[in-house]
Amino acid sequence: MKINFLPRKLFLRALLTMPCALMLSATSLMAQLQPQVTGNHAKEKLVTNKNWTRVWNLTSEWDSFNSDHWTKTPVEGPWTWAGRWPGLFEEDNVSIWNGELRIEAEKFTSPKLAANWTHGGGVVRSRAKMQKGMYVECSMKTTETIMSGTFWLINPPGSCPRVEVDITESVGVTSNRATWLGGQFSTGMNSNVHGRGGCVDDDRDPHRSNNFDPDATYHTYGLYWESETKLHFYHNGRFMWTITPPSDAVDDMHIMMVVETYNHNLPSTGPNADVIDGFTKPKWRRLTRYQWVRTWRPVAGNSGNRELGVDELGSDQSSTASLTAFPNPASDVLTIEGISEVTDVVVTDMTGRQVLATSTSGTIDVRSLESGVYLLKVLGTGQSVRFKKD
Prior knowledge:
By secondary structure, the protein is mainly beta. Helix content is 10%, strand content 38%. The protein has helices spanning 8-17, 20-31, 42-48, 180-184, 273-277, and strands at residues 51-54, 70-71, 83-84, 87-89, 94-97, 100-104, 106-112, 117-126, 135-141, 148-154, 162-171, 190-196, 207-208, 219-227, 230-235, 238-243, 254-259, 287-299, 324-326, 333-337, 343-348, 354-360, 363-365, 372-378, 383-389.
């Protein structure tokens, strides 16, 4: 398939006149080229006025589970968190299905291990760490049980200071043992920033909205880590609030997606406990589901290694200064100049979907790719080059 690109003015004119369904597809494609933030609030413009590029080892559309980038093993290396009683983290509760990451909330038929764990959840943790200046977001639908849907950041164990940034935490339903806080968590977006491990004061600064049901549909939750003292939170692309962390020395943080039980929403008691808590519902309603997670870092100016937008669609030349690829177009093997040693690279299509990931010292086999335009990125260097596949 040969792709010919329209000049920008003609592209925009076609966009304005195309049918609604096609327009939604086109605008969705364009939205994927930057964080999903809109609006004219000053904190929204902080994001929309920047050019961004994705951080690929902190991003997934969940077509598969990349164990080089993510782990679902609760106890691993310095990480010793097996769950929050009575909810035990189990790897088999984490799955990929139909382009989604799914973490199941379950009630065991009988308690497990010496601690008598009665419920099961799961944890997914990024191997790489988010840094100051980045923006992170996910599309999530919370489980319809007493357990949680969460999206948050934390420093690795042993860090000092160690800070947790809860972008949002929620539960699907409240149990008959829920405290007032458990009731709060059943609606809206619930954000918090606090210290961990005694190295920094556990001063909490919670912010909550209660104007939507997090288990009813997918919502987009985002965080812009602007600086040491400014963390900006977003819901469905709109600014919600800013929180100042308890320490301005916070180091890089891992991304966490966790389904757990809470002390303020413990399992119900009585003959109808499982009905109240949502565990008689079918599995698909007991899942916390993530459509994607995307992490972005800003790039200077209007070029560099930013992902391609409308301005670039008419150009055949798009590369960083020290990286070139030939032949261009390529049909079988693409040679990359500017790589001096074995390096990890990813190839994405024009929607930002990853189609190839490999290690190379200068060539990659592109025969498996369909005809079209692609962007090759060298991980960890910020280098990229666009090429065509015949």
